[in-house]
């Protein structure tokens, strides 16, 4: 029995080391896309962290570019921003953060070996891109002001969705 336990332990250690090597060192197209998702998520999180600090009263003002149509304070204090009972910046921050473990999950060949992961990631990011589009519309049509932080967050979500669909297409074919 101890030999079997040693074999299982050794095999798990080998799989772990292989995953670490793949994620850190391999340069496959899919891994480059997944790294792009992580980078875009972190950029979006930076923007949404600032919005969350404002929306929760940690800071009292969001600086804007010196353009008359920008008013991040107004956009992020709107009824729309609080309509779900929690500031939308905090929800967006959480959602962007969730992209990181999704992008990091699995080895280089996960589209073939674990196709449901990239499909779930693409479904999630596509919904979020649509929501970002709706919020973008709200800035223009309802608030009639722009929020640079929100624009960065929306662009990050759109980029994440576009990139995730590439791996999802490959995963779909492997089903």
Explain what the structure shows.
- The structure is a single chain.
- This protein is mostly helical and 175 residues long.
- Helices cover 78% and strands 0% of the residues.
- The chain has a single domain (28-174), classed as de novo design (two linked rop proteins) (Up-down Bundle).
- The chain is built from eight helices and no strands.
- The two termini are 37 Å apart.
What are the key terms here?
8 helices, de novo design (two linked rop proteins), mainly alpha, 175 residues, oxidoreductase, transmembrane helix, 78% helix, disulfide bond, oxidoreductase activity
Outline:
The chain has 175 residues and is mainly alpha-helical.
In whole angstroms, how far apart are the ends? Answer: 37 Å
User: From the 3D coordinates, which CATH architecture would you assign?
Assistant: Up-down Bundle
SSE series:
HHHHHHHH
Structural category is: mainly alpha
Alpha plus pi helix count: 8
Tally of DSSP β-strands: 0
> In angstroms, what is the radius of gyration?
20 Å
Uncertain spans? none
CATH topology: de novo design (two linked rop proteins)
| Fraction of residues in H or I helices | over 70%
Fourth-tier CATH superfamily name: VKOR domain
Beta-strand content bin: under 5%
The first-level CATH class is given as Mainly Alpha
